[in-house]
Design brief:
445 residues; 8 helices; alpha+beta; 6-stranded antiparallel sheet; 7-stranded antiparallel sheet; Jelly Rolls
Length: 445
């Protein structure tokens, strides 16, 4: 009942000027059974709307104390820290999570850490129907984009996605967030040029006139009580609704102090999988219909209120072609290269979202008990060459230790080496090229 009350409240706000992605008819059907809860929900809303005294802004705008930028770091590796996460050396922070089966795409086709843009600006490679500001989040080394309310924004450089791709980004919100405020939305559409059709993506619900395939995921950090947040998935195409559903989630929830999250999305033809940190929250086999329609653009939308007390921040966006067959690459071809094993900035600490790739490799090694591998680390060319060489060696060793300690692969079957920046796989002058150069190689011995 609390979920239903939350969605009705959202609909009422949308009628006064806020965007929505919930079908009005669906919401209306729920109104009758939620009428009894409305007074209770209003009381909850008042409590959630209070801003605690003494809480400062989560972000530092232009003019704040400078933070060392990626350009100054020895390896930008800006698949980067999650918001508010402390940097530390060593692989000890990595742990296996059995339910996390996400495997990041291998070939990076879109990467954005906003390193080329100045604080206070809107990023040059993006388009929008509103405005936004690049900001700093606490001591995080990367920049995050804060946008105005009811604003659509999208990376113009990402076009024509394959039928198997992954999208990852970091999402944060301010510590206090209103129960009735709008959602943060990421959408996928067959429309090739969003800039010519802003209205179709500013407010979801033009179902009767929407012939384009459009799939939207919405996230909100405040539910109807307790420590949960909310998530919604809607999909339409050919003037018909494909999917419309909602659920509570506890990973991105400000009331529990979890106001930052790493979002991982995996499209495989018609299938949609969504993960918050290492928790899978959605697995919908036909979210993209039969999977035959091409996705031409990714976009984001801020349905929130757009004030300093309640804001969304997005950063470290990574889009990649879906992962190849690890078994075929390593056993048959003798070599497997992955950009899906991610590390903290300037560190050999493996990120939790690398679990799916490591598990896949471990499975291949377990099934082929006589195979030995050499693990080789590579970096991009940012920073000092000697420091990058040392870092690549440490990262290769960290992967070896993780495969041994978490998956039981004997260390005697694995050797390590670091190449630093000496063997680039792509151009080091673009964010996408740098992301493809930050990789780990497995060579069959």
């Amino acid at each position: 009942m609390k979920i239903l009350a939350f969605l009705i409240a959202w609909l009422l706000v949308a009628e006064t000027g806020h965007s929505q992605i919930i079908d009005p008819k669906r919401a209306a059907r729920r109104a009758a059974e939620n009428r009894a809860n409305q007074k209770i929900d209003q009381g909850i809303d008042k409590g959630l709307d209070k801003v605690e005294e003494g809480i400062g802004s989560i972000f530092k705008k232009k003019g704040s104390k400078p933070t060392k930028s990626n350009e100054e770091s020895s390896d930008s590796d800006a698949a980067a820290d999650r918001p508010n996460q402390k940097q530390e050396s060593g692989p000890s922070g990595f742990s296996a999570t059995g339910k996390f089966d996400f495997i990041p795409g291998e070939r990076v086709i879109g990467f954005e850490d906003f390193s080329q843009d100045g604080l206070g600006d809107f990023p040059a490679k993006w388009n929008t129907n509103g405005s936004g500001t690049l900001s700093k989040l606490n001591d995080n080394p990367n920049k995050f984009l804060m946008t105005n309310s009811e604003t659509v924004f999208y990376p113009e450089f990402i076009k024509g996605l394959p039928d198997n791709f992954t999208v990852e980004f970091d999402l944060a919100s301010t510590p206090e967030f209103s129960y009735y405020s709008g959602y943060f939305v990421i959408g996928f559409t067959s429309e090739p040029n969003i800039g010519k059709s802003w209205g179709s993506f500013k407010k979801y619900g033009n179902r009767r006139n929407n012939t384009k395939l459009t799939v939207e995921l919405a996230l909100h950090p405040t539910g109807a009580g307790g420590d949960q947040g909310m998530s919604v998935v809607n999909a339409v195409g050919g003037d018909q609704e494909i999917v419309s559903n909602d659920l509570e989630q506890k990973v991105f929830a400000t009331k529990g102090g979890k106001n930052n999250v790493h979002v991982s999305i995996w499209r495989q033809k018609g299938r949609l999988r969504v993960y918050l940190n290492e928790s899978k929250i959605w697995d919908i086999p036909r979210a993209f219909g039969d999977g035959s329609e091409k996705i031409n653009a990714i976009y984001f939308r801020n349905d929130g209120p757009g004030n300093d007390a309640q804001q969304f921040f997005v950063g470290n966006v990574r889009v990649a072609v879906g992962a190849p067959d690890t078994r075929s690459k390593l056993i048959t071809e003798g070599k497997f290269v992955t950009t899906g094993i991610l590390f903290d900035v300037n560190s050999d600490k493996i990120k939790g979202e690398s679990y799916g790739v490591l598990k896949d490799i471990a499975n291949v090694l377990s099934e082929n008990a006589t195979v030995r591998v050499k693990i080789i680390g590579h970096t991009d060319s940012d920073g000092d060459e000697a420091a990058n060489l040392s870092l690549s060696k440490k990262r290769a060793e960290a992967v070896k230790k993780a495969l041994s300690s978490e998956f039981g692969i004997a260390e005697s079957r694995m050797s390590t080496e670091g190449k630093g920046e000496t063997q680039p796989a792509a151009d080091n002058t673009t964010p996408e090229g740098k992301a493809n150069n930050r990789r780990v190689e497995f060579i069959k011995q």
